[in-house]
Structures are given as structure tokens and as C-alpha cells.
Amino acid sequence: MASTKRSILHTDKDSGVRSTDARDALLLAAERCLALHGLDGVSLNVIVKEAGQRNSSAVQYHFGDRKNLIREILKYRITAVNKNREDRYREVCNNPGGPGLIDLVEALVLPLSDVIISSSSPSYYVRFLEHLTNHSVYFAVLEETGWPISRGFAKVTEHIRVKLAHLPEVIQSWRIRSLGENMIASLANVETMIQLRQIGTIDGIVSDLVDQLVVALEAIPSEKTLGLIRNS
């Protein structure tokens, strides 16, 4: 019996499989905690307890520090999201006449909404991502993770910029930035609504989100806006 207890207490180091299980448990617990309480709103000890780990230094053992933990949470899902984006982008680029604006926006939105739809339990990733993209650590984490993980986003938004070439450059940049922020904020809200059982299926909501984002990109700037930009 004593040896059984020992094996449970030391799963991190006893085997590669168990170590991987412990690492994944920490990643998922951290994703959930940081999504609900913010990147600075929960201690590493709380994350360890939420992950069901007995070793208080489990985070340091697997990740080193908080920033590395955050980086690994980002990588845990964003690699698949990025591949999905690149695949969708290649597909719509093969459309006769090339992709329309709605095709490009769908190539951005659907890979992220798929994270929510495909989850067999409550999803927390987009809420985590919302906190991360509004935190000072974001660009440092992204650079350390490797910019290729955002390559799909970059390809699609550069193509969107081409579609907006008739607009002043400052408006192009602002609308693309707003596109990313509104996409993440809206899907984070969808995650919360699902968890609170305020909605069931989200296909219609996601489709409407795409419609809203396209309308925002296509909006004709007022003469007042154009005048203010010319005079700035």
C-alpha cells in the first residue's frame, strides 16, 4: 500500500506518460483559472491544486515560471488553430475570382469558433486568449513562442488589407485590429454564454458574427472621419 501511495504522489517523475498527463492537467487547469480570473488573478499554487497535483512546485518543474506556462497554454491550441486558418485560406484562394471578404473573415473566425464547438467540456481557451491579447506580456510570449504560430492570421489579414486598399492606411490598420479584437471578445462571450447555458448550438451566432465583422470592414467612412484623418 505504501508503494502505491508513493507512485501516485510522484507521477511527475515516475514515467514519461504520467509526466505528460500531469503536464496536460496543469495546462488545462491554468487555462481555466486564467480565463476566469485573468493572467494575474490566480496564484500558481491555486493552479496546482486545481490540476489535482500534490507537488507544490509542479508548475516550476514542468514550465519554469508563469510566463512560460502562459506561452505553453497559447501553444496548446493555437498550433491547430493556425493550421486550420492556413488550410481554409488556401481553399478560399482557389475560388473562381479569388476569395471574397466574407470568405476571408470566415477563415479567421471559424478556426477559433471550432475550438468551442469541438470541445466535449466547457471551453475556456478564447477567454484566456482575450485576457492574453490585452496583457503587456502578449507580444513577448508570442515572440518567444515563434511568430509562425500566427502566420495564418497574418496571411488572411494581409489579404483583407488588399480588399481595403481604397481606404486610408490608418483606417485599414484600425479596422484589421478591431476585427481581431472583436472576434476574440465576441467568441469569449459565446464561451461564457454556453457555460451559463444561455445558448445551445452556436452556428447561427458565429455566422452572424462573421456578417457583423464584414459589415464593419466594408463601412464607408464619413466625410467627417476622412477630414479628421487628412488633417491629423
TrEMBL record:
Highest taxon listed in the record's lineage: Bacteria
Protein's recorded name: Regulatory protein TetR
Native organism: Sphingobium chlorophenolicum L-1
